[in-house]
Amino acid sequence: MFETGCGSAVITPRTGLQMGGYSGMRIAEGVHDDLMAKAVYLADGPENCMMLIVVDTLEVDRHFVDEVRRRVEQETGVPAACCLVAAIHTHSGPAGLGRVALSDTQVFGTFDERLFERTVAGCATAARKARRWAREGTIYSGMASMLQPICGNRRVRTAEQMQMRVLEVETTTRCAVVYNLDCHPTVLHEENHLYSADFPGFAASIMPLFEPFVTMPVFLNGAAGDMSTRFYRQSSDFAEVERIGTIVAESVAASLDVLEPMKGPFTVRAAEVPLRLKARKFPSAQDLKRRIADARKKLEVARLEGVRNLRSLESAIEGLTFAAKIADSAGNVEYIDSRLSLVRFGDILVAGIPGELFSSLGNDIRAAFPDHVVLVAGYCGDYMGYIPDAAAYDEGGYEAFTTFIAKGEGERLRDIAINGLRTLLA
Questions:
Q1: Cβ-Cβ contacts under 8 Å for 370 (sequence gap 6 or more)
Q2: Most exposed of 25, 217, 298, 366 (fewest Cβ within 10 Å)?
Q3: Closest C-alpha among 231, 216, 156, 218 to residue 186
Q4: Residue 63 burial (C-beta neighbours within 10 Å; 0-12, 13-18, 19+)
């Protein structure tokens, strides 16, 4: 018998913390909208279950995820391997939960113990609620298109129409809707000093106006490494958050009437696949200095020529500056350790990716399983930074300048994910 439940908890931390997502000092001064932890429980019998937890943070690392899994298994009975933990990647939350393991001994990033404990507790609370409120229910699946364009490839504007996979999981009293969209939720920029879940937060608050039965909308970020609102946002303020969030909410709600019911049995299988990827070799300090100077000249020329959207040029400078900052400490690293978090729930396949996967690689994973519902969950299980495709290294840009992994390793990760999911289907 299929059962499902959903639960949430507020995880908004105290003000005064460094905010994540942009360089430099950026201290939180207040709260615009609460940050949340959301959990969806799925089961086909007491021993056949999984939990999906999504948190409104920039990222989560393996230390954080392992502790959440331990607590969830202890308090709900869901096996640790069957508990997926992912971040939405808001740039208006606190820093301190995501560190990159550069080698056995080197770690890049910050850690805030008090933030860690509070956020873990919120995830465990959401999971307990989801398990406690589980009831017999139904699961539906389908695709949804944006009613208006709000996001796309941020390296070069294209005419592609963004689609997202939608899961509706409902009982007689509760309905969770999970929408898997490839997009940096970054309407708000570094000028913002208020905690916010950006447009996914507003979409969650307004979706019940379009579909009253929806009790918990969940944004599950996908292969967002090169996808954002960059060419589609009209400003970077909260009015624009509301505009884009409204479009997202209406688009998801409009899809619910055409979703198809899924049939069991919903067999659960899970695997944690270790990753050891080759590290990139950073350019010399002299080369990076020259590249930064060239990038600044390009930006100045573009300003004089009246180019309207300068964000790609600005981000290139930010990426080169970041590379110069870490080149000494990361330059001698030979590999990056991380892991994939893979789960099968009947015909649903979830590929938990520990970072910012490029959309081409995510689309390859989905295309490998045309007869299944494939959710590519970015920022899931751990964090290792950008995971570009091979072409990005030749094109340059922020993502290629800041990635820790060598050219071609994104494709190798993709292949490992596909093979791992095939094993779960065997």
A1: none
A2: 25
A3: 231
A4: middle
Contact 49, 268 (CB under 8 A): yes
Give the residue extent of every domain in the chain.
2-268+339-386, 282-330
CB-CB neighbours of 141 under 10 Å: 19
Q: Side chain identity at 146, as an amino acid letter?
A: M
DSSP characters over 345-367: ETTEEEEE-SSEE-HHHHHHHHH
E strand intervals along 279-385: 335-345, 348-352, 356-357, 373-377
Those residues whose C-beta lies under 8 Å from the C-beta of residue 395, and which sit 6 or more positions away, are 155
CA-based R_g, the chain, Å: 20
For residue range 246-284, list pLDDT tens digits in order. 999 999 999 999 999 999 899 999 999 999 999 999 888
| Phi-psi category of residue 5: left, alpha or beta, with phi > 0 → left and psi -120 to 50 → alpha | beta
Which regions of 171-293 does DSSP assign to beta strands (E)? 175-181, 194-195, 216-221, 227-228, 260-261, 268-278
Instruction: Identify the DSSP state of 82.
Output: G
Q: What span, in angstroms and rounded, lies between the C-alpha atoms of 175 and 260?
A: 15
What mean pLDDT is reported for the chain?
Answer: 94
pTM: 0.94
Count CA atoms within 13 Å of residue 136 on its CB side. 1
Measured CA to CA, the distance from residue 356 to residue 88 in angstroms comes to: 11
Q: HSE (CB half, 13 Å, CA atoms) of 312?
A: 20
Percentage of the chain lying above the pLDDT 90 cut = 78
Q: What DSSP element (H or E) covers 269?
A: strand 268-278
CA distance 101 to 277: 11
Amino acid letter, residue 150? I
For residue 381, give the amino acid letter. G
Please tell me the distance from the alpha carbon of residue 400 to that of residue 391, in angstroms, as a whole number: 9
Contact by Cβ (8 Å): 87, 20:
no
Partnered with residue 168 across adjacent β-strands are 140, 177
Query: How long, in residues, is the chain?
Result: 426
- Residue 230: which of 295, 179, 185 has the closest Cα? 185
Grade residue 46 by pLDDT with cuts at 50, 70 and 90.
Answer: confident
Q: Which of these, 102, 85, 101, 55, lies nearest to 341 by C-alpha position?
A: 85
* Alpha-carbon distance values, 38 to 64, 253, 264 (Å): 16, 19, 24
280 membership: H or E segment, kind and range = none
